[in-house]
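Fold this complex.
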Amino acid sequence: MSLLRIDNLHAAVADKTILNGISLEVKPGEVHAIMGPNGSGKSTLANVLSGRPGYEVSEGSARLDGKDLFDLEVDERAHAGLFLAFQYPVEIPGVSNMEFLKAALDSHARAHEREQPKTSEFMKHVRELAKSLDLNLEFLKRGVNEGFSGGEKKRNEILQLLLLDPKLAVLDETDSGLDIDALQTVSAGVNRFRTADNGVVLITHYQRLLDHIQPDYVHVLAEGKIVQSGDKSLALELEQRGYAWLT
Amino acid sequence: MAHVNAMHELTFQPWREHSAATVERAFAHAATSRGQLEAYKYTKWDKVVALLRPTRSESPVPCPGIEFRSLSWAHDNAMLAELLDLGIDQQPMLLAGFMQAGEIIYAQTTADARLNLNALGGNAPVYIDVAPGTRLTCEQRGGAVQAVYVRARDDAEVVHARDLSDTDEGWHGLVVDIHADASYTLHNFATGGTLQRQDTLLRARFEGARARVDSAAYIAEQAHLDQNFTVQHLAPRTISVHRCHNIARHAAKVTFNGRIYIDRDCPGVEAELNNRNLALDEAATFNTKPELEIYTDDVKCAHGATVGQLDADQLFYFLSRGIDRNSARAQLAQAFLRQCINGPQADDVERKIIQVLA
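Structure:
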């Protein structure tokens, strides 16, 4: 059974069509890398799946674990198991990171009629995750992403990924702005997340991320369509030849 | 005229050579003059004056480190001279608040102290004289009418927490004189109220004086919050930071007039005034006007005002993590106010904003 199934997806932003019929199937345990030139629609795909306002779906469907994503509100998509790691995580002064994480985890518990985690256990778990991502524990007390460097913001996204443990993670250029050490740490976090039951859609510009997170499939997006699919060797070929031969 | 009628319900002490009748006429003239257009544009003069009530005073509860006595305009004019310097043309309402008949409670610190203004009883004007080099923490909660004058003498440190959230209708006047290397911090919080008017004047009078205001307010229904803040830099190398975050919803109305004044020959002044307003629905009204009046070149000064709705990107971030829309909106609104909530009453105030914004 598919974890994510996208069929003939068309979407527009401000009346401009960006996605022109994307079809993609992600099965449990798979990592799909999506590459492509600037403006090809990679981030639009991530935003459409997660339900960001301003993106209009005109045709096609996307189902997560059998549920029609477009029938669900943004928070319901998260409860259904979708997680978007943002390319540019927003800063939220006044809401502490710890408070935000607890609210997110509690909302999932409520949605699935599970018992909410005890605060002491939750804090212990979050601290352990933060340490594994080399994220200073002081950051947990600060406002969400407030004053974080680019790398710290990305680590914080992965911390949330590991905490919420979704069925499908869509990572939107998580490698952008990371130095070599941070790239390795973040990649280790994503690899820690991977199981035989969940899936990852990895949006990236660079092959280097795929040295750390081995993809099962690589897709090239151009002008809102997948124009080429292959295994990791496709990414290496793109590194050498660029995108021109495919568009 | 309506304002004259309202004034007649109060009795003002004459001062200097003026008669009471002259004072009343002067108030009426000052408040309706061109220079006061903004201060009384959204709440008319007669409505503001009508918020004043005859004052009453009780014997203050003894407080360690503080000596109390009474002052009167008749006998203590010299001591009250700095209040008279308010200038009837500039601050008629503040002057009115202090000039009402009856005594003024004089609280003089002799050491580090904590003062609970509510324990003073009544609503008589209070003159707080903070001794050089001492620290005073002053707390104030609710109360319909209160005029407070603070003089922070050299090297004194004053922290003033004012929670006006339980006030339905009222006027609160505050004048602070900050001396050399002294600091004054106001933590201001307000909710609700049919009409709440706050007139505040901070004067950095001597070199090295520092003033800070963190103000947060939430109002709803038909409430009107009318804030008038002025910071005067009257000496070189004085510093002020003023952050004011307000939220309104329903048919509520917020008025903010903020003004930084930097006098001549005051190099090295640093002043910042920032008023941010958040509308939780389309019916709320905001009138905001930050102003600068600067007469010295070598200063750093910034001011700004915004009126907006909840940040769409922040809201989406919450939702994307599974937090439902109502909770997300509530938490973002709380966060907006929380940026201006700190000080001795912060825990209580936080509980209140969580309650009203749940």
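Chain B has eight helices and 17 strands.
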